[in-house]
Design goal:
The protein is of the alpha+beta class. Helix content is 27%, strand content 22%. The strands form two sheets. It has a four-stranded antiparallel sheet, covered by helices on one side. Strands 4-5 form a two-stranded antiparallel ribbon. A hairpin with a 2-residue loop joins strand 4 and strand 5.
Length: 110
Amino acid sequence: MSRKSSSLFVRNLPEGIRHEDLRRTFGRFGIINDVSIPLDYYTGRMKGFGFVEFDDERDAGEAKYRLDHTRIMGREIGVQFTVGYKKTPSEMRTKEKSGRSGYGRHDRSR
């Protein structure tokens, strides 16, 4: 039997949202262990999504149920349970570099 995650993935976050904003919004449903809003390594800008980790998976479920497709700071957010694990900054940089394939490369077959 698979166990539900106590961590939520929150997509479509508005530019300028702060950790405190997410903590206040999601904290109504239970104890929060961590809030993370990833930034692009190269630009320092928000990527538009975040993670909220609850102490109890039931609280995470309630928050997902109540907040999915609601609005925060004028934007409709999507909330779902996370799958996998939280990546380290080093893993994120590696992924971003590989996603930028083609930049700075020249076709040498000409």
